[in-house]
Specification:
- It contains ten helices and ten strands.
- The chain is α+β, with helices and mostly antiparallel strands.
- A hairpin with a 2-residue loop joins strand 5 and strand 6.
- The chain is elongated and about 130 Å long.
- Pfam families: FliM (PF02154), FliMN_C (PF01052).
- Belongs to the FliM family.
Length: 324
């Protein structure tokens, strides 16, 4: 507490001010800088945690850019424009009254997250999927049932990659739940609860708009201790599998049809129509052609191996592009 001045000290101070010996600014007590804190808008996440959230979603944008480019067969660019923490009420108030809202269930958190897609971006996606040029200017209505199914399929696959973006931090499962056009019908968090908002600037062909992710505190809270830089780097180190081993692991799980063709026969249509039970069709004999997919890659001879039909490979057929 500041000292209380006596009457004599007050008189001396006033006299010095009147005589010009002292300036008023010299006696104004310097006030401490006070940081305003709004308890209705609690800041639950540190800058370090928000940086980790940003890194996760940078990975997601790269994956989704590649995916949408392949699906739409046009130029697609997705970049993070903003990562911030706001109240859920502020998020709802910031988006248009008519928009495209995809709701996803997140396990094991038992919470829900929302991706808001600007109608211009959504219609550009649909136009490209239906064979158009991606021009959404003629669209001003809601999605039809067919268009809703298309949006569901596209973003269900996109959020399979969202799980991959989080795998260094937490194994989550994201399931598409519903699509809505009015934000007032979506209630994934209390009005004053803090949510993380990630704004993605999206360009599809000549159309530019935004997609906005909203992560409620219920989803982020269980993984907050893992969002520190130390935990992030530790998780990255443990999952740093050499790229070649990673590709080999993926290739080992690929299923490819293998067909051994015994031979071929050519019949006139009249003979084919008159075939009866017991008829024999002669085939051209020779080496068996072993096909991988639709391509003949081996020649061999028929035989038995442990009581089962088998083919002994005699020759490998190389095609253009093979490494000899």
């Amino acid at each position: 507490m500041a000292d209380v001045l006596s009457q004599q000290e007050i008189d001396a101070l006033l006299s010095a001010l009147n005589n010009g010996e002292l300036q008023a600014a010299d006696v104004v007590e310097k006030q401490e800088k006070v940081k305003v804190y709004d308890f209705k808008r609690a800041m639950r996440y540190s800058k370090e945690q928000l940086r980790s959230i940003t890194r996760i979603h940078e990975n997601f944008t790269r994956l989704m850019t590649s995916y949408l480019s392949a699906q739409l067969r046009t130029f697609v660019q997705i970049d993070i424009d903003l990562v911030d923490q706001v109240t859920y009420h502020e998020f709802i108030a910031s988006i248009p009254s008519r928009t495209i809202l995809n709701v996803f269930e997140v396990k094991p958190m038992d919470g829900k997250m929302v991706m808001e897609i600007n109608p211009q971006v959504a219609y550009a996606v649909i136009e490209r999927l239906l064979g158009g040029q991606g021009d959404p200017s003629a669209r001003n209505g809601t999605l039809t049932e067919i268009e809703t199914v298309l949006m569901q399929k596209v973003f269900t696959r996109a959020f399979d990659m969202y799980q991959d973006a989080w795998k260094n931090i937490e194994n989550i499962k994201v399931k598409w739940e519903a699509i809505e056009s009015n934000p007032q019908f979506i209630q994934i968090a209390p009005q004053n609860d803090t949510v993380i908002v990630i704004v993605l600037r999206t360009t599809i062909g000549e159309v530019t708009g935004t997609m906005t992710l909203c992560l409620p505190h219920l989803i982020v809270e269980p993984v907050m201790p893992k969002l520190s830089t130390h935990q992030w780097l530790s998780a990255m180190t443990k999952s740093n599998i050499p790229q070649q081993d990673h590709l080999k692991h993926n290739l080992d799980t690929v299923h490819i049809p293998v067909i051994a063709e015994l031979g071929r026969a050519t019949l006139p249509v009249s003979d084919l129509l008159n075939l009866q039970i017991g008829d024999v069709i002669g085939i051209e004999t020779g080496k068996l052609e072993v096909k991988i997919g639709q391509l003949t890659r081996f020649l061999g001879n028929p035989g038995l191996q442990k009581g089962r039909y088998a083919v002994q490979i005699d020759q490998v057929i190389h095609t253009e592009g093979d490494e000899l």
